[in-house]
User: Which sequence fits this backbone?
């Protein structure tokens, strides 16, 4: 695909351009080209406006017997977008522009007309001064006189404005300086106020932080004092609980409801429950089979003494190192003895 874009063709060494036959084409032949409208125009037939930059498929031809400094002039034919009337314009290399020729009128060319009029007047003046020295002197005198009149009129207008306005320039300058001074003072006061507010906010924040730290210290001290006020951490275990009757024993004594966590270590009851426990000493087999009256009396006295000691222990529980009560141990021992005796 790249070879089709090559502009330079190969010419063999024996190439002779005179052998190429020339086509006999007319000099005023036309070509179809794509162009844009060079200026705003209005169709004379239907009054349609054609704006600058509108694209057309135009026919192009070379104007015969018309040259500007050896440059050819071209003519373009376009059609109106509404009525299809033919519009023609041609190039103007003298003014580097285009000239409307037929079918439409050019719009918005007042500035161009003024420039053309000025050029015409200047050209006529130069032609007059070319061969007439007195005309040159006359034109210079006229120009200087007109310039003096313009300066006098300008000075009169300035004096009239000063008399009517009566502006005190010194007062205006003083007022402007005073306004600048007040503006600087106001900005300085605002900066000082903002700085003071920032310092106050920082101080309040520090005070709040110190207050919060002191409150935390007081809370920690109070909690420590409360913990120290209690004698022992396990004293809460000896408080009486609200018991619920689960059932009655055959002897008619009501038992408290046993929690799941108390089953492995026994129950913590009151003195009556502990007092009802019996601690028996294991006797030899022979003595157990035939107990004597003396042994029976001795065992009954021992039982009474143990019951009284158990009551005293129930009135004052003793806590061990692991936080459990001795009463729970007694209860466990009593349960084991009762199961063994049974």
Assistant:
């Amino acid at each position: 695909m790249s070879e089709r874009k090559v502009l330079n063709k190969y010419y063999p060494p024996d190439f002779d351009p005179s052998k190429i036959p020339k086509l006999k084409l007319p000099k005023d032949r036309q070509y179809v080209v794509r162009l844009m409208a060079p200026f705003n125009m209005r169709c004379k037939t239907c009054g349609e406006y054609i704006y600058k930059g509108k694209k057309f498929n135009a026919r192009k031809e070379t104007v015969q017997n018309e040259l500007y400094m050896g440059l050819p002039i071209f003519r373009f034919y376009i059609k109106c977008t509404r009525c299809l009337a033919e519009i023609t314009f041609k190039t103007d290399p003298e003014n580097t522009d285009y000239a409307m020729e037929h079918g439409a009128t050019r719009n918005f060319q007042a500035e161009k007309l003024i420039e053309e009029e000025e050029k015409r007047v200047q050209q006529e003046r130069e032609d007059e001064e070319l061969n007439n020295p007195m005309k040159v002197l006359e034109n210079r005198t006229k120009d200087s006189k007109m310039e003096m009149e313009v300066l006098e009129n300008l000075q009169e207008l300035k004096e009239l404005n000063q008399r009517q306005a009566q502006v005190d320039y010194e007062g205006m300058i003083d007022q402007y300086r005073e306004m600048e001074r007040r503006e600087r003072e106001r900005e300085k006061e605002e900066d000082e106020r903002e700085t003071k507010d920032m310092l106050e906010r920082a101080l309040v924040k520090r005070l709040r932080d110190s207050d919060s730290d002191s409150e935390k210290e007081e809370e920690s001290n109070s909690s420590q004092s409360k913990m120290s006020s209690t004698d022992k951490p396990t004293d809460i275990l000896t408080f009486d609980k609200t018991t619920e009757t689960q059932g009655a024993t055959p002897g008619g004594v009501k038992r408290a409801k046993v929690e799941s966590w108390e089953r492995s270590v026994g129950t913590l009851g009151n003195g009556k429950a502990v007092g009802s426990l019996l601690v028996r000493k294991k006797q030899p087999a022979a003595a157990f089979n035939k107990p004597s009256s003396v042994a029976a009396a001795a065992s009954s006295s021992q039982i009474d003494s143990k019951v009284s000691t158990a009551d005293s222990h129930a009135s004052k529980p003793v806590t061990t190192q692991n936080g459990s009560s001795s009463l729970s141990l007694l209860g466990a021992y009593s349960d084991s003895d009762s199961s063994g005796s049974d």
Remarks:
- The helical segments are 110-130, 133-165, 169-229, 271-275, 285-289, 293-315, 326-341.
- The chain has a mean pLDDT of 75.
- DSSP finds seven helices and ten strands in the chain.
